[in-house]
Design goal:
By secondary structure, this protein is α/β, with parallel strands linked by helices. The chain has two domains: about 5-105, 60s Ribosomal Protein L30, Chain: A; about 115-270, Alpha/beta knot (3-Layer(aba) Sandwich), CATH 3.40.1280. It has ten helices and twelve strands. A seven-stranded parallel sheet has the order 8-7-6-11-9-12-10, sandwiched between helices. A five-stranded mixed sheet has the order 1-4-3-5-2. α3 (about 40-50) runs parallel beside α4 (about 70-75) and α6 packs parallel to α10. It is elongated, with a radius of gyration of 20 Å. The relative contact order is 0.13.
Length: about 280
């Protein structure tokens, strides 16, 4: 491969690195419109999704594989300026305990409901009031796995560009259509497009596996502690529950969302075909 033209940064006190650290906080991201992307898989998916990359910081000393430099070169072809960092300088900007030597910044263009293009038999997920970035990221990862039409993050508590959302999603934040909106606007838009709304709640009578999830539908899951609001449950076309045999009365929201999404995918025929027309059957990737 061609040699990477980059600027060397050895000092952890470099002013440019301080700007990167500020992107860990929502105020810094809101001010700049930038998202922080750390990790090989995360950056690879951002590159594949043609996200508008701005800068790429890399440290060969911390690489875990042999393809990192090729990915940096790809990031450059997407318009990113490259910076080679010492291990000390890289650890200054990394938010991981075991960094793998790749961090990038990108302009993240947030979608609106009008940007969505439902398929002929759409499947959506409503994630209402999710508080933990790790859960939201895991939800996006499962949503990507079933080829979802979109995730509607409603009444959000956590920002979708939180670095831990990017990390937990393994970069699928860039492959899944994600819209931050209110529950009211989401319900209105879904109704206008003929999409049924199913509320997941432990108090429902009907089991999720008995519900018809092969029709155009949006599955709604709620906040970790309190679940969906009563108003959302009342407005939904149907309420479904996941059976519980133990003492716990509910699952982690990302686990519940995964079960519901894969049941919908099973009823529709699985595995789905991805954008390149190939089947995806991967475990632990």
């Amino acid at each position: 491969m061609n040699r990477i033209e980059s600027i060397l940064i050895a000092s952890p006190s470099n002013p440019r690195l301080k700007e990167i650290v500020r992107l860990r906080d929502r105020a810094g991201r809101d001010k700049t419109g930038l998202v922080l992307i750390e990790g090989y898989r995360e950056l690879m998916r951002a590159v594949d999704a043609a996200i508008a990359l701005k800068e790429c910081y890399y440290c060969p000393e911390l690489f875990l594989g042999s393809n990192e430099l090729a990915l940096v070169k790809q990031a450059q072809t997407r318009g990113a300026a490259a910076f080679s960092l010492s291990a000390t300088a890289f650890r200054k900007i990394s938010y991981r305990d075991r960094p793998d030597g790749l961090i990038a910044t990108a302009q993240y263009e947030k979608l609106t409901l009008s940007d969505l293009s439902p398929s002929s038999n759409p499947l959506f997920l409503i994630a209402q009031g999710i508080e933990k970035p790790g859960n939201l990221g895991a939800i996006l990862r499962s949503a990507d796995a079933v080829g979802i039409d979109g995730v509607l993050v409603c009444d959000g508590v956590t920002d979708v560009t939180n670095p831990n959302v990017v990390r937990a999603s393994t970069g699928t934040l860039f492959t899944v259509p994600v819209v931050e909106t209110s529950s009211g606007d989401a319900f209105k838009w879904l109704r206008e497009h003929g999409v049924k709304i199913l509320a997941a709640t432990p108090h429902a009578k009907q089991l999720y596996s008995d519900a018809d999830l092969a029709v155009p539908c949006a599955i709604a899951v709620g906040a970790e502690q309190f679940g969906l609001t009563e108003q959302t449950i009342q407005k939904a076309d149907m309420a479904v529950r996941i059976p519980m045999a133990g003492t716990a009365d509910s699952l982690n929201v990302s686990t519940a969302a995964t079960l519901l999404l894969f049941e919908a995918a099973r009823q529709r025929g699985f595995p789905p075909r991805n954008k390149r027309g190939q089947h995806k059957c991967q475990n632990g990737q």
